[in-house]
Specification:
binds guanosine-5'-diphosphate, 8 strands, eight-stranded mixed beta sheet, alpha/beta, 7S RNA binding, 434 Repressor (Amino-terminal Domain), 3 domains, Four Helix Bundle (Hemerythrin (Met), subunit A), Rossmann fold
């Protein structure tokens, strides 16, 4: 998953810091050296890294962390803050105008995921109560319009097109007029790309911009292409003036450098990220959540939002409370595992759960369905009392549980270890939420 390598390295660095208790200047410097390397390895632009580390150093000195009671946490907090800033600080929404239709123009190179994203975005907006119209104006890539129509059928969102013979400006103008009359309040225009940036492409897009006057121009770039994506964004922004970037394929095995550099290099915020091929795999981009995900504090808010869309809301709320109040039990652990099944790829979900993100043991534990069945069996073989107070599970209880679940004592031990580790990390998370007064997890 995205950032997993970076997250792992940063978390290791901070773990070392935390274990030290009192820190010397040298400790901090060593940690920052590691942070620097980890970022470079994640393919973050080197100048961005340099500025980033510089800012952290400045603050680390300024805020006298070495004298503070919890120096390691202070360092982590500063890194968390700066990572958040680096990615834009706060969430950048799209600007929906008061006099509809809002016209959104999607631009980008071929293969970046523009057409798919046009449908995902329209789909997301419709979920928010809008009436979108999709426009097929990619007259260049063969079958792009057909592809949009298929996505339209799949989502039930209407598609406006005039075929591939018309020019994109005329198609777009006609579409906006059609939307106005038909009561559509958002229009997403899928423009043509090219394999590489060239004059023809830029001229075409500038034409559309001048004639159609879109309210939002969003660039779709492929996160897998790393710093190339950042350079593409820079060029497009210089020529077109972008309102935002949509980073696709963040579900893939990308190192994440683009996500961390785009804002700093271009000044353009990332507004959405593509997390899969399916039409619902588009998420608003939250710099603060992404930062805590990278630092292993988990992204409980996104998880809860997903849960709210997919599972019992009341249960999700209770879970959040339990985490905040440090009352997370084995029963909750089991329930969470069961609910995960309905939430999507396990690997992605695990990355969002505080503590689990960094739990090595869990990674080694081949997290497949069979394993889930085994964990379920073990927990179900416990008495309610044992589930609530796993501390009481002694050797004889372990043997009984193993027998009852058709597993071994080692399996039981392993599960308990994972659970205690999760619980401990959740406690730390509870502490995190309080320090610095930011109250990230307080609503
Ligand atoms: P376009 O040429 O820019 O219009 O690109 P397409 O929309 O046809 O997308 C190119 C390929 O990327 C398709 O196979 C999409 O399914 C895939 N794709 C787009 N967005 C994502 C994403 O967020 N994650 C993944 N894994 N694949 C994506």
């Amino acid at each position: 998953a995205v950032f997993s390598k970076l997250a792992e390295r940063l978390q290791e660095t901070f773990k070392k810091l935390r274990n030290k208790g009192k820190l010397t200047e040298k400790d901090v410097e060593q940690a920052l050296r590691e942070v620097r390397l980890a970022l470079l390895e994640a393919d973050v632009n080197y100048k961005v890294v340099k500025d980033f580390i510089g800012k952290i150093k400045e603050r680390a000195v300024g805020e006298e962390i070495l004298k503070s009671l919890t120096p390691a946490q202070q360092v982590i907090k500063i890194v968390n803050d700066e990572l958040t800033q680096l990615m834009g600080g706060t969430q950048s929404k799209i600007n929906l105008v008061s006099k509809p239709p809002t016209v959104i123009m999607l631009v980008g190179l071929q293969g970046a995921g523009k057409t798919t994203t046009a449908a995902k975005l329209a789909n997301l907006l419709r979920k928010q109560g809008r009436r979108p119209l999709m426009v097929g104006a990619d007259v260049y890539r063969p079958a792009a319009i057909k592809q949009l129509q298929v996505l339209g059928e799949q989502t039930g969102i209407p598609v406006f097109s005039l075929g591939e013979k018309q020019n994109p400006v005329d198609i777009s103008l006609a579409a906006v007029e059609y939307a106005r009359q038909g009561g559509y309040d958002v229009v997403t225009i899928d423009t043509a790309g090219r394999l590489h940036i060239n004059e023809e492409l830029m001229n075409e897009l500038v034409q559309i911009k001048e004639k159609v006057k879109p309210h939002e121009i969003l660039l779709v770039v492929d996160a897998m292409t790393g710093q190339d994506a950042v350079n593409v964004a820079k060029t497009f922004h210089e020529r077109l003036g972008l309102d935002g970037v949509i980073l696709t394929k963040l579900d893939g095995d990308t190192r994440g450098g683009a996500a961390l550099s785009v804002k700093a290099v271009t000044g353009c915020p990332i507004k959405f990220v593509g997390m899969g091929e399916k039409v619902d795999a588009l998420e608003p981009f939250y710099p603060d959540r992404m930062a805590s995900r990278i630092l292993g504090m988990g992204d409980i808010l996104t998880l809860i939002e997903k849960a709210q869309a997919n599972i019992d809301q009341e249960k999700a709320r209770q879970m959040e409370q339990k985490i905040l109040q440090e009352k997370f039990t084995l029963e909750d652990f089991l329930e969470q595992l069961q609910q995960m099944k309905s939430l999507g790829p396990l690997e992605e979900i695990i990355g969002m759960i505080p503590g689990l993100a960094g739990a090595k043991q869990l990674k080694n534990l081949q997290f497949d369905e069979r394993e889930l069945v085994r964990i379920e069996a073990i927990i179900q073989s416990m008495t309610p009392e044992e589930r609530r107070n796993p501390e009481i599970i002694n050797s004889s209880r372990k043997r009984r549980i193993a027998r009852g679940s058709g597993t071994t004592v080692q399996d039981v031990n392993r599960l308990l270890k994972q659970f205690f580790q999760t619980q401990k990390l959740m406690k730390q998370l509870g502490g995190m939420a309080g320090f610095g007064g930011r109250g990230k997890f307080k609503k």
